[in-house]
Amino acid sequence: MPRATRSQRPSETQQPATQNARAGRSRRRQVSDEEEEEENSAESEGGERGMDVDSGAEGGDGDEVHLETRQEIRRKANNLVRLALFNEQKRMPLRREEISKKILAGNSRAFNHVFTLAQEKLRSTFGIEFVELPSRAGLDQELNGDAGEDELNDARKATGMKKKTASLLSKTYILRSTLSPILIEHACVTDEKVLEEEIADAPSDIEDEDQDEDDAERHPKSYGALLSWSTADQLGELGILYVILALVLVSGRVISDVDLRAHLKRLRLPSIPSSHPIHHTAISTTRSLSTDAFLSNLLKQGFLDRQQVGDAGKSTNKGKGKRVRTQAEDADEGRMYEWRWGPRAHCEVGEEGIGKFVAEFMVNGGLDTGDGEEGDEGGEGSREERKKQEELLARMTKGVERAAGGKLAEVR
């Protein structure tokens, strides 16, 4: 076998170069792995804090402040407040992409500073604040807990695989009140003077005898309270929403589309295109809605989530379409759906709130809590009657927990 010539042999300078190249590649690979771990840890820490947008005003983005003058940031913060209030009037969540497009004109690096200033204005002026909605992965992790997390970590260590952290936040925001529940409760108490002024300021055609009954029902009702619910919200829609959330909760936190529509039909809310059983007050531009249109609005607003199941639902449908298909259309095509709470319901209402709503309604509205005699005019009976009522409320709340399949979660 011929010996290798001098030109074919690796020179002494080539051998260290090859080793250095290999060492350089390994170092670069190690550095990239460390950077990836730091990014994942930063994302997980941001998810635990709830919102990562408030941290940018204190540090880390100091150089970016110079991109915008203080007056420009203040102007954009005011525009963000207006946009948030406009979206809340429609009960629609606000996406970060929409903020960057309409407020920041594509300069997303100034988001933290503009958002923080707008958050301060909302809290100090209106008593509301931005709340970032969780993603579906975040909700599932919170509801299911950390079951099986230790086994997964052990498996990753054994195989050398790295943990892929899913985003727990959706970069979508809603407005939520910061007022104390006690303050809201006192502000909802009827005041006779306020009630007289509201009746005096009401339009004179409300009590017109020649007016149609449907039109009379659509006028806002006067309650004489500091918080005027009837002129700011559609109480009919809000009541139906709470009933739907209660039905989903007591059905084990998930209900089939067939069962939900059967319950709504018993409440005279049929899924018929020609029927519009959900009426609005006169302050709304939409006179009434069908049941399918109302469910579509709840999907868009984030109160409900719908998923396709069964053989026809191998490609999971998250219910993000423009409208809810009618029950007849789903039956013809063999589709089956399930309804769950959406992220907004967890952040705005909470399972404990709906559980309390169901318990109080069943005890105060459907059961006889006394000895066959009515209590005082203020709704307060003797101590024994109040004690019985509290016991009934406690038992009813536990019954709701058993029906839901576990402890009721607080507002997220």
TrEMBL record:
PROSITE patterns: MAGE. Residues 33-42, 199-215, 370-379 have a biased composition (Acidic residues). One of its GO terms (cellular component) is nucleus. Residues 73-133 form the MAGE domain. Residues 1-21 have a biased composition (Polar residues). One of its GO terms (biological process) is DNA repair. Residues 380-390 have a biased composition (Basic and acidic residues). This is MAGE family-domain-containing protein. It comes from Crucibulum laeve. The lineage of its organism: Eukaryota, Fungi, Dikarya, Basidiomycota, Agaricomycotina.
